[in-house]
Amino acid sequence: MAFETVKIAQEGAGWGTIAALANADGSATHRLLQTLVLGRTPTRMIADSVHLIGMLQGRQPGIIDYAATRCIQPAAVAWLEEAAAAFAIERGYLTRLTSTAGPMPSTPGQADTETTVAAQRHALDMLAQSDRNGCAIGAAVALIIDWMAIRVVLDSASERFGLTIPKCALPDLQETTSMVGAIANAPGIERAMAFGAQQIFAQHRGLWDLIEARASARGDI
Fold it and tell me: Half-sphere exposure (CA, 13 Å, Cβ side) for 220?
């Protein structure tokens, strides 16, 4: 399976900034993703990636759950409910994949890795529980967008480990674009959403950097 970067259209009120951030800083642009979905990638590198993704985004409640419980935007309620239910399925998929992948490969600096990911989780939790109107929704939107790229990695891992790949039921880009356009009706909200989204992309890129550094320390790349 080859990884292909898909540019997200930037048209639509309130959507342009988030789409631009995704195209510039989303997981799909990170050099490591191409490596992870190529057949020559060492199995332990695939397993390590799955474990670290699970450490960051496999817990419940997560970003979307927090955003849904704190939402004060009526136009976002249905989207958040759909996204939360669908991401629960993704979380279950990630759990099964992590179990099948076996233990995390031994890597120098393991304690530092755990500390780094714990700090990332804390940052995401604070972001998703922000009282700034629009911030948590922006974070949830970015997670849905970025999960498209993360899902390619997970599905490639599933093929490697012989698992059945479940259908992804997350809201599609059209639904997401419509929701963002409906609530980004003031500059303050739009800026808050962009901030939330930017932080998600940044944390995910940090995770890919960490995975890459661990692979290098083991001699996998």
Answer: 25
> What does the alpha-carbon distance between residue 86 and residue 74 come to, in Å, rounded to a whole number?
20
Average pLDDT, the chain: 92
If you search the block for the tokens 């700090």, which residue do you land on? Answer: 119
Cβ atoms of 71 and 131 closer than 8 Å: no
Q: Distance between CA atoms of 157 and 164, rounded to whole angstroms?
A: 11
Q: How many CB atoms lie within 10 A of CB 40?
A: 5
Count CB neighbours of 109 within 10 A: 13
| Half-sphere CA count of 172, side-chain side, radius 13 A | 2
3-state secondary structure 118-141: HHHHHHHHHHHCCCCCCHHHHHHH
- How far apart, in whole angstroms, are the C-alpha atoms of residue 7 and residue 23? 6
Using CA atoms, how far apart are residues 20 and 17, in angstroms rounded to an integer? 5
Q: How far does CA 31 lie from the centroid of its chain?
A: 16
- What's the pLDDT tens digit per position in 82-94? 999 999 999 999 9
Model confidence pLDDT, tens digit, residues 162-210: 999 999 999 999 999 999 999 988 889 999 999 999 999 999 999 999 9
Measured on CA atoms in the order 80, 86, 89, 94, is the torsion positive or negative?
A: negative
